[in-house]
Design brief:
single chain; Rossmann fold; Glucose Oxidase, domain 1; 7-stranded mixed β-sheet; 6-stranded mixed β-sheet; about 30% helix
């Protein structure tokens, strides 16, 4: 794992949608207060339709950050949409062997880049981006957890289940499992199934979350994963926050009730532990999770723990 030290460079870039410049400036201030050296890439604050730049411009920023040996980590400014445009070219670059692993920080659409990092065996961090770094500041506990990870630590992560208060959110499945922690945004993961970028390998611990997706669309993606055989070989499932959707639907009280029903389809409980409704996703309390690293997941009464190997 990469271990950042005082004075190391951290690239801030926008691989997808437009970002508020104030968040980038505030995040850079937080990084400086941590003793790091933020480098805002040329097209981070750009605008090209809904994107921060053309595909070529966004690729240029990421390529330059990857090729610069003095840059030890990449913090994405935000998600949105657009990372999928960059995967093929970045895959070729990373396969060349000309670059050393470096941290990637982000979530939501950045899940596509996490999948690419995982394909090449590079750990990355599913975590909030420039907005939280800027608004919450350098002393925020979740920001400090991110800093500890960037410094090469592997802190255990214990989170409450049933975080949203949904009755179905409390229906976790207790147990223990070991595997590679992968995943992130469910819609992005679903779009990568059947491609070389599919992040879910047999024996994985899968993390899922999403925003503004109707219950039936989330169910459709879950069935896509099931039909692809993904649920046949999981070591564990972590169900994060599903925000900004309408509930109830005509079929389910809320998203967690649907997911619980999906997992019980056919009357057989899953053989793997399920941490239901944990604080990961499009919320202020988005707990940083190291992806593409082996860990043990233990789900018990009202809580779930990840211990990295």
């Amino acid at each position: 794992m990469v271990k950042l030290a005082s004075g190391d460079k951290v690239a801030i870039l926008s691989p997808a949608s437009i970002i508020n410049p104030d968040y980038v400036g505030g995040a850079a201030d937080t990084l400086r207060q941590w003793g790091l050296c933020p480098v805002v890439m040329p097209h981070t604050l750009g605008e090209h339709g809904s994107f921060s730049g053309s595909s070529r411009e966004r690729l240029s920023d990421l390529t330059d950050a990857l090729l610069d040996p003095s840059v030890k980590a990449i913090v994405c400014s935000r998600g949105g949409y657009g990372c999928v445009h960059l995967l093929a070219a970045l895959d070729r670059l990373m396969a060349s062997g000309d670059i050393a692993p470096k941290w990637l920080v982000g979530f939501s659409d950045i899940s596509a880049l996490h999948a690419l990092w995982g394909k090449h065996g590079w750990p990355s961090v599913h975590a909030s981006m420039t907005k939280h770094l800027a608004v919450a500041g350098p002393e925020d506990p979740l920001n400090l957890r991110l800093l500890s990870i960037l410094r090469g630590e592997k802190p255990d992560l214990t989170m409450p289940t049933g975080f949203s208060g949904s009755p179905a959110g409390k229906l976790s499945r207790p147990g223990k499992g070991e595997g590679m922690v992968v995943g992130g945004n469910l819609a992005v993961i679903g779009g990568l199934v059947g491609t070389p970028m599919n992040p879910v390998r047999p024996g994985s611990i899968l993390l899922i979350e999403d925003i503004a997706e109707p219950i039936y669309k989330v169910e459709r993606i879950l069935w896509q994963l099931r039909l692809a055989g993904i649920f046949d070989n999981l070591a564990g499932l972590m169900v994060g926050q599903f925000t900004d959707y309408r509930a109830p639907s005509r079929d389910h009280a809320d998203m967690y009730a649907m997911i619980d029903s999906f997992l019980s389809e056919g009357g057989a409980a899953p053989s793997f532990p399920v941490a239901m409704d944990i604080p990961v996703g499009h919320i202020d309390d988005n707990h940083p999770v190291i992806l593409n690293l082996k860990a043990s997941l233990e789900v018990g009464e009202g809580r779930a723990s990840l211990r990295y190997h």
